[in-house]
Amino acid sequence: MRIAICDDEEVHRELIGKYLEEWAGNSGDRLKLMFFRSGEEFLFAWEDDRNYDLLILDIEMGGRNGMELAAEIRRQDEDIPVLFVTGYDDYMAQGYEVAALHYLLKPIRKEKFFAVMDKVKKKGTQEEKLFFRTDNGVVSLHRSKIWYLEARAHQCILYTAEEEYVLRTPIGEMAEYLRECREIMRCHRSYLVNMCHISAIVKSELVLDDRRRLPVSRGEEKKVHDAFVQFYKR
Predict the structure, then answer these.
(1) Which of 13, 23, 15 lies closest to 121, judged by CA?
(2) CA distances from 13 to 54, 58, 60, 106, 107 (A)
(3) What's the CA gap between 206 and 29, in Å, rounded?
(4) What contacts 56, CB < 8 A, 6 or more positions away?
(5) Do residues 16 and 33 make contact, with C-beta atoms less than 8 angstroms apart?
(6) 192 touches 149 (CB < 8 A)
(7) Burial class of residue 84 in the structure, from the number of CB atoms within 10 Å of its CB (0-12 exposed, 13-18 middle, 19+ buried)
(8) Do 76 and 139 form a contact (C-beta atoms < 8 A)?
(9) At what angle do helices 110-126 and 10-27 cross, to 10 degrees?
(10) Short-list 129, 116, 112, 5, CA closest to 57
(11) Residue 129, number of CB atoms within 10 A of its CB
């Protein structure tokens, strides 16, 4: 588990690191901890490596505070768990805007911290994240966030409920990359779709949960229907 701790006070960084090592010793998990003294320092590293399983952010930091940092991260990663640590309890409403996993008030109680880490571990084992290269860098998404992909010249567009990502990869290569994801299938030469978000198959179209419709090519109709039935049987 790769964890970033961003706090401008060394004593708090060290305490969180100590708690994490103790939690990992009890749970049998292996951790890689990265420490950052400011939001700017973290974002500089984030541009090169976004493969984190948890971000622990102090809210009250000089320069870019933890809430601003989380908002910037959420524009690029919808799913990464964000745990805020703060000396004040008046940030809860803002936290909903960046889908914060939890708040811990300073001074941090070890038992409460361990309970939050158990929650992070459970969340991480439930669903694997996938990584996609876009014009704006790499984004990571859980499988369930993917609705469908549409071919667009030598690139393709990945659609979620809230966002559209322009991927630098042709749809044929994306089909190969997603081949092990049993919930994602090809319904047309120009479309890959996540069966989790199909509400109905109507003639030669798929109706998604938000009423968007995707075409089904004639040659794929039987395969799509059979795959859809088998997926929900499983």
Answers:
(1) 23
(2) 15, 9, 14, 12, 12
(3) 42
(4) 3, 4, 5, 6, 7, 16, 83, 85
(5) no
(6) yes
(7) buried
(8) yes
(9) 60
(10) 5
(11) 16
What sign results for the dihedral spanned by CA atoms 121, 122, 124, 128? Answer: positive
- Render pLDDT for 56-111 as a digit per residue (tens, 0 to 9): 999 888 888 888 888 888 887 777 888 988 876 665 555 555 556 788 888 899 99
- Report CA torsion sign: 116, 82, 94, 132: negative
Tell me the H-state helices in the chain: 10-27, 39-46, 66-74, 92-97, 110-126, 171-177, 221-233
Residues 6+ apart with CB under 8 A from 162: 78
pLDDT tens digits, 147-191: 999 999 889 999 998 789 999 899 999 999 998 888 899 999 999
Token pair 């889908």 is at which residue?
A: 99
Q: Phi and psi for 72 in degrees, rounded to 5?
A: -65, -40
Closest CA relative to residue 152, chosen from 136, 139, 133, 165 = 165
